[in-house]
Design goal:
271 residues; alpha+beta; Helix Hairpins; 2 domains
């Protein structure tokens, strides 16, 4: 009978999206409560939205027991002036293409004396009204979470941008220094190459052994300079390639920041 009531409650809630009375299990205890379905949001968001209402709006202190959020012997003005024990849980219901999150809420005046329309119609109407307005709270909570995610994303993107700008500045300095070193190497190599040519011509004319030793030494110096020049040129090419990559990342970063800023502005305006 309990299972049948629960199934009927789920069916009615899925089709009409109205709060209704239900019977639920809290451990081995049968509790009478109220249920409603919320569409288009993940269970974690729906669960978090209800916790947010009780714990942040109404400042209740709760705990998790037997799969429920429980708030014992506390006043919640949404339901009335009395002190209540509140129990709620969320579960996914429906089929793959028609899923919803079912919220089950039990309000007790103590000792598991659950509020129902039969014993307390006024409080029951408050509970139903609370649940039937809950989808707006879920929407607001979801937007708040998305705003927080975007704010965190923007913080990360701005930090990334600062790092890329620093990397770009370092690369520009290294390119400038390497370019200057290459210029100095080129000037020196040009000078040594001219000296080698002159000494070679003199040696060809004199075949002087002493001059030959000097020519060999100068030729080695030229070869060393050429090797260093080639290495520096490779370094310069790599630095320029890295700068191109950093600039591309900066452009992507700027686009992401612009998009996130627009999305954040739109979400804030929707609150």
């Amino acid at each position: 009978m309990i299972a049948l009531l629960a199934i009927v409650s789920v069916f009615c809630s899925l089709s009409a999206q109205r709060a209704s009375e239900t019977v639920t299990l809290y451990g081995k205890d049968q509790l009478q409560g109220f249920t409603i379905n919320v569409n288009n949001y993940p269970q974690a968001v729906v669960d978090g939205a209800m916790s947010n209402i009780f714990e942040n709006q109404y400042k209740l202190k709760g705990s998790k027991k037997k799969g429920y959020h429980v708030y014992e012997n506390q006043q919640c003005s949404a339901f009335g002036d009395a002190r209540y024990d509140l129990y709620f849980t969320t579960t996914e219901v429906g089929k793959k293409n028609n899923k919803a999150v079912q919220v089950t809420l039990v309000v007790s005046t103590g000792n598991m004396n659950c509020v129902t329309f039969a014993n307390d119609p006024r409080t029951s109407r408050n509970i139903v009204s609370f649940l039937e307005k809950f989808d707006k709270e879920v929407e607001h909570y979801d937007i708040t979470l998305r705003i927080q995610d975007l704010e965190n994303k923007l913080t990360k993107l701005h930090k990334e941008r600062d790092g890329l700008l620093a990397d770009s500045a370092k690369l520009v300095d290294k390119i400038a220094n390497t370019t200057e070193e290459l210029k100095q190497l080129s000037d020196k190599l040009e000078k040594v190459t001219a000296q080698v040519a002159t000494m070679q011509e003199e040696f060809n004319n004199t075949l002087d052994a002493g001059l030959k030793a000097q020519l060999d030494e100068k030729t080695k110096e030229k070869q060393s300079l050429q090797k260093t020049q080639a290495s520096k040129q490779k370094t310069l090419t790599n630095l320029n390639d890295n700068l191109v990559k950093v600039k591309a990342k900066l452009r992507n970063n700027a686009t992401e920041i612009e998009t996130a800023d627009k999305d954040l502005k739109a979400l804030r305006q929707s609150l």
